[in-house]
């Protein structure tokens, strides 16, 4: 089985090689980069958290450290899931470009939903004013009301978009398999 991917890390090149969808191949590259960046942020953040709380006895701080890692897994798992689903499907039964394309779109929407969720959960003292911005000769002001709406939402609502999109990835996989 020289063509077998042999695990999570090997699923990335395997899915890239076997997919016929260019959008999915793009998602494999972007998803791998995003997974690496998120993993580094979680790892460095955990080191900082442990360093800041090293002198404090266990108890609730140990729970917060574990929760930090769990949140990181809840972000990384949906980033990797479309790639793992496609790699498994190609390995077992072969796949149609529609399946690969749909999961790539769902993966990109999940990435966007993480950003939207982060916008909704920014504390008030860290929010920057939402103002129109200029890109070349064009002034973009259509996103200002959206950003203001997201800033006005309670921070807990920041969980809704990523959770809904993660469930959507699984739903697309189940629907199209």
TrEMBL record:
The keyword Transferase does not apply. Keywords: Membrane, Transmembrane, Transmembrane helix. InterPro entries: DUF8056. Residues 1-177 form the DUF8056 domain. It holds the Pfam family DUF8056. The chain crosses the membrane at residues 26-54, 66-87, 99-122, 155-176. This is DUF8056 domain-containing protein. It comes from Haloferax volcanii (strain ATCC 29605 / DSM 3757 / JCM 8879 / NBRC 14742 / NCIMB 2012 / VKM B-1768 / DS2).
């Amino acid at each position: 089985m020289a063509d077998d991917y042999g695990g999570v890390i090997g699923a990335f090149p395997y899915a890239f090689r076997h997919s016929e969808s260019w959008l999915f191949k793009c998602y494999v590259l972007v998803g791998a980069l995003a997974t690496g960046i998120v993993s580094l942020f979680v790892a460095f953040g955990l080191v900082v958290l442990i360093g800041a709380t090293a002198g404090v006895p266990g108890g609730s701080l140990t729970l917060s450290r574990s929760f930090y890692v769990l949140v990181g897994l809840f972000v990384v798992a949906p980033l990797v899931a479309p790639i793992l689903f496609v790699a498994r499907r190609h390995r077992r039964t072969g796949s149609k470009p529609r399946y690969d394309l749909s999961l790539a779109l769902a993966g990109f929407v999940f990435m966007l939903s993480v950003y939207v969720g982060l916008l909704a959960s920014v504390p008030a003292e860290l929010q920057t004013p939402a103002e129109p911005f200029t890109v070349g000769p064009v002034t973009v002001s259509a996103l200002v009301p959206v950003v203001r709406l997201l800033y006005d939402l309670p921070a807990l609502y920041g969980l809704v978009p990523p959770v809904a999109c993660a469930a959507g990835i699984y739903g697309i996989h189940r629907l199209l398999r």
